[in-house]
Amino acid sequence: MFGSLRLPKGKLTEAEQRLYNGHFCALCHGLDQWGGKIASLLTNYDTTFWLLVLAALDEDRHGPAPLNKLRCTAVPFRQVGIVQLRPQTRQLAAALTLALVGAKVEDDRLDGDRPWVQWAFLPLRSSWARAGPWLDQVGFPRDAIEGLGPWQRAMEVEATSLQELAQPTQAMLEAVFGFVADYTEQPSCLPALHELGRSLGLWIYLFDAYSDQGRDARSGAFNALARFPQPPGQLASQMLHALNHAQRALARLPLGSRRPMLELQVARLRQLTREQFGVVEPSSGGAACWVMGGLAAAALTPTAAVACDGCDCGGCDGCDCGGCEGCNCEACNCEACNCEALECCNACDCCQGCEGCQCNSSKYDWICCCHSDSTPPKSKTAPPPKEDELPGTTRVKRKWPWSKKKPKPVEDPPQPG
Questions:
Q1: Three-state DSSP class for residue 33
Q2: Does one domain contain both 196 and 269?
Q3: Are residues 115 and 207 in the same domain?
Q4: pLDDT band per the 50, 70, 90 thresholds, residue 372
Q5: How far apart are CA 37 and CA 92, in angstroms?
Q6: Are residues 51 and 180 in the same domain?
């Protein structure tokens, strides 16, 4: 997944480019301080995108971070602008990067794919080993990252559709972005952050599957599109619809001066999709919206995700209603549905939330009804809120499909390879 969320060249002003470089270099310095020069080589555009979102919400609460000149980690005699993040934020970005890369290396090892990667990762094993316990201390949902590989391999055997195969990646990024709301003490941003993570997760999974078809066919590796072939137009529609959701999620977040660079990165994904499929903007009305777990129907047109002001149903194509109250949406097909409050499941017989709802999604109870307000879906299996490690914040623990009772922390966590 690394490398997708880069900026298109020449689209930012000089000040905006300095600000973006300041975050990219701040991640590099954070990795250097965490694990030395070798660790700084893991600096990437994707974690920088996440860091931009976190820094924007953190700035909205704690004030702007200064941009100072420091020595470049790669070229010591060169001075570069660095956004002076809080020390804990800098460590968080570095630890998350190592956790993501370590999980990818372990997944490659178990799959037998690119065995040389685990040997290249050997110098970083001690830095990676420290990242997990540190993330636990700040309440980060580390199991969302470490459980991605096992859940994905299980789904490759059990899944009955392409959208099910994409759900582990969607859930992982939903957790990674959702943590930003806890960390920055802005719970009102949680629904938009979840939507951003799920939409990017869907795009990344589908794009990787589409791009790797030839290579996987030659090597005999698993490919989602070989298992569940899709017409190119329908696949492109889902990917572009996912980016509509990402665009809507960004519009609902207080991003300040970082908004242009984040929106441009999503715009680049849209352009990349069009180039890959040779289309301008395909549509497939009435298909399922995979961003919200494949449960809500949606008209996959360019305006589907943003046509309704305040409406989260994803299916009011061209609807000019205030929140869809009384709207006969194709997505939920229920009059007087309050779409501002929740995403309706067409797999259930209610539009008032999950309580008492006989959803067909019991296998994935965490996506029964995807609420778009700050109230999480009710679930019989969901544990009660627990005080987080961060002062003044609480974090609602979610029961992920791979979650088990966590063992007590050990001094030497397992290492890839």
A1: helix
A2: yes
A3: yes
A4: very low
A5: 18
A6: yes
H or E segment at 369? Answer: none
CB atoms within 10 A of CB 158: 10
Mean pLDDT (the chain) is 74
pLDDT of residue 377: 36
- pLDDT of the residue at 369: 31
Residue 146 contacts residue 416 (beta carbons within 8 Å): no
| Helices of type H across 252-299 | 259-277
Element (H, E) at 298: strand 296-300
Same-domain check for residues 187 and 276: yes
Percent of residues, the chain, with pLDDT higher than 70: 65
Nearest residue to 18 (alpha-carbon basis) of 258, 265, 255: 258
Assigned domain for 75 exists: yes
Q: How many structural domains is the chain composed of? A: 2
Residues 378 and 355: their CA atoms lie apart, in Å, by: 6
Task: Please report, for the domain that includes residue 263, its CATH number.
Answer: 1.10.600.10
| Residue 175 structure tokens | 């957790």
Say yes or no: 200 and 114 in one domain.
yes
Domain extent for 44: 14-282+376-395
Measured CA angle at 120 (ends 115, 126), to 5 deg: 115
In a domain, 114, yes or no: yes
- Give tens-digit pLDDT for 231-276: 988 899 999 999 999 999 999 999 999 999 999 999 999 999 998 8
Characterise 301 by phi-psi region: left (phi > 0), alpha (psi -120 to 50), beta (else): beta
Query: Are 355 and 245 in the same domain?
Result: no
- Same domain, yes or no: 179 and 56: yes
Written as one letter, the residue type at 228 is F
Name which of 11-15, 87-91, 232-236, 279-283 the model is least confident about: 279-283
C-alpha–C-alpha distance, residues 342 and 367, integer Å: 12
Provide the greatest CA pair distance for the chain.
66
The model's pLDDT over 22-51, given as tens digits with 9 standing for 90+, comes to 999 999 999 999 999 999 999 999 999 999
Task: Indicate the length of the chain as a whole number.
Answer: 417
* Partners of 25 in beta bridges: none
Check whether residue 318 and residue 276 sit in a common domain. no
DSSP 176-236: HHHHHHHHTT-GGGHHHHHHHHHHHHHHHHHHHHHHTHHHHHHHT---HHHHS---HHHHH
Residues 118-158 have pLDDT tens digits of 777 888 889 999 999 999 999 999 999 989 989 999 999 99
